[in-house]
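Troubleshooting log. The previous structure file for this entry was overwritten by mistake, so regenerating from the original sequence record. Sequence copied from the archived sheet and checked twice against the printout by T.R.
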Amino acid sequence: MKRYKIRIEEGEELIRILEEKLEKLGIKEAFIVSLAGALSKFALITIDNSSTEIPPGHFETEFNEKAEISGSGFVKNGRAHIHACCGREGGQALCGHLVEGKVTYFVDVGLIAG
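Regenerated output below.
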């Protein structure tokens, strides 16, 4: 198993750029063990509690605000799947499946692949 740290820079789209960097490194499968940084805009998917379907229905919500991000997930077939908690002003947290996020400052992603 090999460890990687990938930095996503100010203004970049987190998922898109991460997947581009994974492709350049030849990483198709990995565990995302750490993800930390900040976003200026992001979208999360959360489960619809009234859904009886498997998989359950869901809601996608976009947020146009700055937030700290902490998350983990995996890479399968070169695609990143991340669940994250985004801390917003006032100490509130928004959590769910990260659809995409625009980076402010930076986001560091720690991976184990092999």
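Helices lie at 14-25. Archived copy saved in two places this time.
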